[in-house]
Amino acid sequence: MKKVLFLIFIGLFLTACQTSSLSIDKSKALNLHYNSEQLVVADKILSNNYINYKDLYVQQYKMQDDGATLFYEALKTDLSYEFNYTGLYSVMLIFDDAKEYEIIYRRNNLVFLQLKLKSKLIVNIMYQFSDTQILSYTYGFTNAKFKSMIQKIKDTDDAVILAYEATTITKATKALTNWNDEMVYFAPLITPLRVKGMN
After folding, report:
1. What pTM was computed for the model?
2. Quick check: 137 and 91 in contact, CB under 8 A?
3. DSSP per-residue string spanning the chain
4. Which long-range contacts (CB under 8 A, 24 or more apart) does 149-154 make?
5. Tens digit of pLDDT per residue, the chain (199 long)?
6. For 44-65, b where at least 16 C-beta lie within 10 A, e where not — what string?
């Protein structure tokens, strides 16, 4: 009986610890991996850019899926640095220190939110923050696509309700993130790695 209870506990623990990830595969498609499922977010890279801040590496992609344009950014700190804030506050800072948001759905380390920028644009963003040194997100979804993605990974069938009508991104749209030295080092977005147990 103890063995059965132990196995049930381990199964529940592993289920609770399942994580999600965003990544670009060999065919240049952006995929969302969640539990044992995979969902294609965008299937074509239109352009890409690499920004090196010495202690932070940013890969930017402009992508397309079914005619819709999305942006995907993957951030990784140097081994001796980490993000100074949680995933949500890091994303808000990166988007020109935006202050207003609505979290639509959260599952494991994956968050779907609507962010209101200082320019008053509303952006649908999906971000993934699995440790203090890696952050990735994609943005620019139409409300219909955003709802559809959330519905596919939700555990329940209840309706997805969005607070705002999001801004549509086109091929001509420039990245909405605000990359600059001041934000990275003086806000600061990143900080030297804090070693637990050390003063």
Report:
1. 0.87
2. yes
3. -HHHHHHHHHHHHHHHT--EEEEE-TTS-EEEEETTEEEEEE-EEEEEEEEE-SSEEEEEEEEEETTEEEEEEEEEE-TTEEESS-HHHHHHHHTTT--EEEEEEEETTEEEEEEE-TTS-EEEEEEEEEETTEEEEEE---HHHHHHHHHHH-SS-PPP--SSPPPPP-TTPPP-----HIIIIIS-SEEEPPPTT--
4. 149/32, 149/39, 149/41, 149/112, 150/104, 150/105, 150/112, 152/39, 153/20, 153/32, 153/34, 153/37, 153/39, 153/107, 153/110, 154/105, 154/107
5. 554 444 344 444 434 445 788 889 988 999 998 888 889 999 999 999 999 999 999 999 999 988 889 999 999 999 999 999 999 999 999 999 999 999 999 988 999 999 999 999 999 999 999 889 999 999 999 999 999 999 998 878 888 999 999 998 999 999 999 999 999 999 999 999 987 665 5
6. eeeeeeeeebebbebebbbbeb
Alpha carbon distance 52, 16 (integer Å): 35
* Residue keyed to tokens 């943005």: 139
| Omega before 188 within 30 of 0, i.e. cis | yes
For residue 41 the two structure tokens come to 């977010």
Q: In the numeric block, which tokens belong to residue 110?
A: 């994956």
For tokens 């103890």, the residue is 2
